[in-house]
Specification:
The complex is a heterodimer of chains A (261) and B (351). Chain A has 12 helices and 2 strands. Chain A has helices spanning 11-17, 19-39, 41-45, 48-66, 77-83, 87-110, 117-130, 132-142, 146-150, 161-171, 176-206, 226-244, and strands at 208-209, 212-213. Chain B is an all-alpha fold and 351 residues long. Chain B has a two-stranded antiparallel sheet with strand order 1-2. Helix content of chain B is 65%, strand content 1%. Chain B starts with a helix and ends with a helix. The longest helix of chain B has 25 residues, at 326-350. Classes of the chains: A mainly alpha (261), B mainly alpha (351). The A-B interface holds A 218-222, 225, 231, 234-235, 238 and B 99, 103, 111, 115, 133, 136-137.
Chain lengths: 261, 351
């Protein structure tokens, strides 16, 4: 059809006319599906509350080890490799991630954004950047040198790919309890890896732990350089893969098992 | 080529994935290392042999542990870890503490060799990685050398008067005041096995005649270094003097003979080998001129190793990648046979 405003053949205009009828059909089909699902014995065995509890238990396990954001998913590698040169840095980054990621995930699960994917990522970044200032204040309250020691990696937490990964894969498809459990487990997994790597690098590279002198046998300053971060994370990931080799990994990104009625 | 040699050395064959005639090559390298150890012991006494023993034992144990973790079996005549240990010892000064050698050899085997698949599959030279690690950690221990003919006690930590090498003097734009004959004979302060230039040249000739090392890489690396030193001299005595001192200082000559020609790490095609040698020389000189650390050749070699598959890919040859694993190769041959069959079938169908 010819659009009088833009003087072009608008295909969408043709589509809009038939939109209402197709939409009605889709609604009818979905209703029939829901009724069928409710009547089926499988649905009776697992009510929606049970499924939520099951999902929460899976999600809270996954982020720690089975689907660790750094070791298995391979996101948020930059702070884990470059900035985790001491335990203080690791704890500061973990707290910053907690302050930034949790509100973003809550928002993403509460307001399930029905916009296009490229726009969604920008919106997540906007929301996360709003919560950067409280995160910065919380970090500086116990670790005043954070700005100098972490440099650009503290504000870079805002656009860390952990947040987008979890928002897109979990928070967009599940309710708030599941997505918060998932986010918390991911933050815990992230902080676990960073604390282990950071304390190893601080003890053997600098001879200190949390700024205090600790175990001075000999320093290896090469551990404070980024290349040893790559090596340590690589060996750690290999170790975790070895541990998990026997256990079959659980399907992490929980599918919609029941349509939202 | 590989299959032919495997037939000849069927007793010692390591399978197709390994560099062909590997045991013979390793035996040649051992023969070439013996004169360097003799002249090292002549200059620095028996402490060098004890250093080598520490390196060999720690490398062999690390290698065995890694192979055990990978659930493979230790192959007979697999002495690649011992070669790594011998090269590593010659790169370090003779008064180095023993714990430093142990750490360097463990890093070389555990970090650089086995995560990439072990012998024949490593993309970085293990000795270069171990040397680079300890040179970043303890530069004052790695780059301060005792003078030749000083008595070195056999303790771990010893205090003897130490000097800086020729490359440090060049870095400060000061003219080395050493006799040139002494430099050629190796009678200057330097790493244990890399100062005796004449011995190194003889060893290189032996290895080239036995076709153990790739002469193109060694020659082009040294030539590009010489050209760089001739074009941009760091000392004002003269361009040829600059070339002489740049080539004879540090671990450049030793490394370009023994480390740069590691058959697992070099590119496969002839054109890319030429580029590899050229880049190695240029990177070495750039590290020497502008680098903040002193271990110039080791870092340049690591970078050159990293770009060697890219060079192969650019020149259109991916044979090396196919040769790396036997399974992949079998798949490729099966694919080629299938394609041939399908082509034949198609041709018959067309008729």
């Amino acid at each position: 059809m010819f659009c009088s405003f833009c003087h072009q053949n608008d295909n969408n205009l043709a589509r809009k006319t038939s939109f209402d009828s197709t939409r009605k059909d889709a609604f009818a089909k979905a209703k029939a599906m829901v009724i069928k699902m409710k009547d089926s014995p499988a649905a009776k065995r697992h009510s929606s509350a049970d499924i939520t509890v099951k999902k929460i238990s899976i999600a809270s396990k996954n982020g720690l080890l089975y689907n660790n954001p750094v070791l298995v998913q391979g996101v948020a590698l930059a702070p884990a490799i470059v900035a985790s040169t001491s335990l203080q840095n690791a704890v500061a980054l973990s707290i910053a991630l907690l302050f930034v990621m949790l509100p973003t995930v809550i928002f993403a699960s509460a307001v399930k954004l029905r916009v296009e994917k490229w726009l969604r990522v920008f919106l997540y970044a906007f929301i996360a950047s709003v919560f950067y200032m409280p995160a910065y204040l919380a970090v500086v309250s116990f670790y005043p040198q954070a700005k100098f020691n972490l440099g650009v990696f503290l504000p870079l937490i805002v656009i860390s790919s952990v947040i987008y990964n979890r928002c897109e894969k979990c928070a967009l498809k599940n309710n708030m309890a599941v997505s918060v459990a998932d986010a918390l487990s991911n933050i815990l997994g992230f902080s676990f890896v960073l604390c282990v790597v950071g304390s190893i690098r601080e003890i053997f590279g600098n001879g200190t732990l949390w700024g205090m002198p600790f175990l001075i046998i000999g320093k290896m300053p090469a551990l404070l350089l980024p290349f040893s971060g790559f090596i340590l994370i690589g060996f750690f990931a290999a170790f975790v893969q070895k541990l998990l080799a026997k256990n079959t990994p659980i399907a992490t990104d929980t599918k919609k098992e029941e349509p939202d009625a | 080529m590989a299959e032919k040699n495997n037939e000849n050395y069927s007793l010692l064959s390591y399978g197709e994935s390994y560099p062909y005639t590997a045991p013979k090559m390793m035996a040649n390298v051992f023969l070439a290392l013996i004169p360097l150890y003799i002249i090292g012991v002549f200059y620095y006494g028996p402490r060098l042999l004890i250093c080598a023993l520490y390196a060999i034992v720690s490398c062999f144990i690390a290698d065995a542990v890694c192979i055990k973790l990978k659930r493979e079996t230790l192959k007979p005549f697999d002495v690649s870890s011992i070669i790594t240990a011998c090269i590593l010892t010659l790169l370090l000064p003779a008064n180095v503490p023993y714990w430093l050698i142990i750490i360097a050899s463990i890093v070389a085997i555990v970090v650089a060799k086995h995560p990439f698949g072990g012998f024949g599959n490593n993309i970085f030279n293990p000795a270069a990685v171990g040397f680079a690690f300890v040179s970043i950690c303890w530069p004052q221990k790695v780059f301060s050398y005792p003078a030749p003919f000083t008595h070195l006690p056999l303790n771990s930590n010893i205090n003897v008067p130490v000097f800086s090498g020729i490359h440090d003097l060049l870095k400060l734009n000061s003219i080395p005041t050493v006799n040139k004959l002494d430099v050629l004979m190796g009678k200057v302060a330097g790493p244990a096995g890399t100062t005796a230039i004449l011995v190194l040249l003889a060893v290189a000739l032996f290895l080239i005649i036995r076709k153990t090392i790739n002469w193109k890489i060694t020659f082009i690396c040294l030539a590009s270094c010489a050209a760089f030193a001739y074009a941009f001299p760091r000392i004002d005595v003269g361009r040829l003097h600059s070339v002489f001192f740049e080539l004879c200082s540090g671990i450049l000559l030793f490394g370009s003979i023994f480390m740069a020609t590691d058959p697992g790490t070099i590119p496969q095609s002839k054109i890319s080998q030429i580029f590899y040698g050229f880049f190695l020389g240029i990177f070495t000189m750039l590290f020497r001129y502008f680098g903040s650390t002193q271990g110039s050749f080791a870092f340049a070699l690591i970078i050159a190793n990293a770009i060697s598959p890219t060079l192969d890919r650019i020149t259109g040859i991916t044979i090396k990648v196919m040769n790396k694993t036997e399974n992949m190769r079998e798949n490729v041959t099966a694919e080629i046979q299938n394609r041939k069959k399908s082509i034949k079938a198609g041709a018959e169908f067309e008729r």
